[in-house]
Amino acid sequence: MNVTSEIKNNCLVLHLSGDLIGENSGLGILEKANEAIGQKILNCVIDISQLRYINSSGIGVLITILTKFRNKGGEVYLFRPSETVQKLLVITKLNAIFQVIHSEEELKSVVK
Q1: pTM for this predicted structure
Q2: Are 77 and 44 in contact (CB under 8 A)?
Q3: Of 78, 28, 25, which is closest to residue 55 (Cα–Cα)?
Q4: Among 69, 83, 79, 68, CA closest to 108
Q5: Which of 45, 40, 112, 105 is nearest to 73 (CA)?
Q6: How do the domains of the chain map onto residue ranges?
Q7: In whole angstroms, what is the distance from residue 69 CA to residue 66 CA?
């Protein structure tokens, strides 16, 4: 699991690649989210276009991030889920909970 992050226009952007299976990688992602929230950043875009697989622990990490940002009045957006991950979001009904962005145009309206 590779994770990179950047702050763009007061929005945390996380780029995830590989397999999101919780454990150690999940802690690193949560740490980046906590740091951003501590800096009063209220929105987060998680680029999951390069994720191959997410297990239940990985889903838990995403939900934890969503909860942290929403508790502060912010929002979390999932950017370009792969076909496999999109199917998982539909099956688990997480597509109704998360804001899912499919295009660069939609992303530009979030990261202004």
Answers
A1: 0.93
A2: yes
A3: 25
A4: 79
A5: 40
A6: 2-110
A7: 5
Q: What share of the chain is helix, strand, coil (3-state, %, to 5)?
A: 45, 35, 20
Give 60-99 pLDDT, tens digit per residue. 999 999 999 999 999 999 999 999 899 999 999 999 999 9
Tokens of 79: 């950017």
Average pLDDT of the residues of the chain: 91
The class level of CATH for 2-110 reads alpha beta
> What integer is the mean pLDDT of 36-55?
94
Residue with tokens 């929403």: 70
Which amino acid makes up residue 71?
N
Q: Give the long-range contacts of residues 83-86, CB within 8 A, separation 24 or more.
A: 84/52, 84/53, 85/48, 85/51, 85/53, 85/54
Tens of pLDDT, residues 49-64 = 999 989 999 999 999 9
What are the C-alpha distances in Å from 69 to residues 7, 29, 43, 52?
15, 13, 7, 25
